[in-house]
Specification:
single chain; Rossmann fold; 8-stranded mixed beta sheet; ThiF/MoeB/HesA; 3 domains; alpha/beta; 13 strands; thiosulfate-cyanide sulfurtransferase activity; 3-stranded antiparallel beta sheet; Outer Surface Protein A, domain 3; ThiF_NAD_FAD-bd
């Protein structure tokens, strides 16, 4: 199939002797254009109806004489700055997929280029197999987003049943589901919402140890941890994902602080590294040794519907980076926080690998 380079639907600003390409936020490309040839080329490329070999003739009709080699070099340069995609690249997908995932495909246009069309990202998502631990506020929201994205398979693991209080923030359930296992209700919701789409495997089980996570995760592409018990669950998931050789993403709400982070085994610092770093920091600060918790923070779930959806969105976005490799994960070994009661102040704190980590 002949590739027809097409300019992405970006803003193009013309100024005396130069053109400015405004693609992604915070990105601008400045091109010299004293004779107007660059503007003419961009106009031709916006049509997306010619191969590189056909571009010289189109430019000639606009009054510019260029060679095919010059056109190839110009197209390669524009592709390098991320402003081109292949015209008609969605045609490789079946019509039903194109209709269903139109907005997803246009999102992938942000990352697409001549060598990797948006359809390829969608196919990667369709091939994904996600182990999702937990079907509560965050977990059910992640499930809904994964189904909307067209993930191929989700293994949903939870031990709880649907209660009336869940309906404030868990929108995969309704009153007819009260008393049912969450995983069964969520599986049925997915089947209704996306016929012939994501396959949801319901596993009614309480996750307690590393071996169980390894068993549940064999063959998976990624783990999303949406449970907060036992207390060391993140360390257990961390160890299991090293055994499986797959990344994991997690998040939660601590009092009024929303947080999320991820681990890519062998690439990023891991959760055990963070634990060791914290222990070593405590050793270097002896003044902490005399402190004790007088009143421990109780387990209170104050995640409203918008908070749960916000958290699920951040976690699913990070999971999507791993599953499709649109761009590098932003939270691999990086603690992201959003202070809900402090003006939505956002911070990011990377942690280093620890040389004493037995996993890394």
């Amino acid at each position: 199939m002949r590739v027809m380079p097409q300019l992405k639907p970006i803003s193009v600003i013309q100024r005396p002797d130069e053109v400015i390409l405004l693609g992604r936020a915070l990105e601008a490309t400045y091109l010299d254009d004293a004779d107007g040839s660059v503007t003419a080329l961009l106009q031709v490329l916006a049509e997306g109806s010619r191969t590189v070999a056909e571009l010289p003739a189109a430019m000639h009709r606009r009054g510019f004489t260029v060679t095919e080699d010059e056109m190839a070099a110009a197209v390669a340069a524009l592709d390098d700055v991320g402003v081109l995609l292949g015209a008609g690249a969605d045609a490789g997908l079946d019509p039903a997929t194109r209709r269903r995932h139109e907005s997803n495909l246009r999102f992938y246009d942000l990352y697409a280029g001549l060598d990797r069309p948006s359809a390829q990202f969608q196919r990667a998502m369709a091939a994904a197999d996600v182990l999702l631990l937990g079907a509560g506020g965050m977990g059910s929201g992640v499930l809904q987003s994964l189904v909307g994205l067209g993930a191929g398979r989700v293994r949903l693991v939870d031990f709880d049943v649907v209660e009336e209080k869940n309906l404030a923030r868990q929108f995969a359930y309704d009153h007819d589901d009260l008393g049912r296992p969450k995983v069964d209700a969520a599986r049925d919701w997915a089947a209704r919402y996306s016929r012939d789409g994501t396959v949801v495997e319901a596993v009614h089980e309480r996750v307690t140890d590393v071996d169980a996570i390894v068993r549940l995760g064999r063959g998976a592409s990624l783990v999303v941890c949406a449970i907060d018990s036992p207390d060391d669950v993140h360390l257990r998931v961390n160890e299991a994902c090293f055994a499986l050789g797959i990344p994991f993403v997690t998040g939660g709400l601590l009092y009024s602080t929303l947080f999320y982070w991820s681990v890519e085994p062998g690439v990023s610092a891991c959760r055990m590294c963070l634990e060791l770093n914290r222990a070593e920091q405590g050793e270097r600060m002896p003044e902490l040794a005399g402190q004790s918790v007088v009143l421990p923070m109780g387990r209170v779930n104050r995640a409203t519907g918008p908070v749960a959806q916000l958290l699920a969105g951040f976690v699913t976005m990070e999971a999507g980076r791993y599953l499709t490799r649109t761009d590098p994960p932003v939270a691999a070994g990086v603690y992201h926080t959003i202070e809900l009661a402090d003006g939505m102040r956002a911070t990011r704190d990377p942690w280093p690998r620890n040389p004493r980590c037995p996993l890394c």
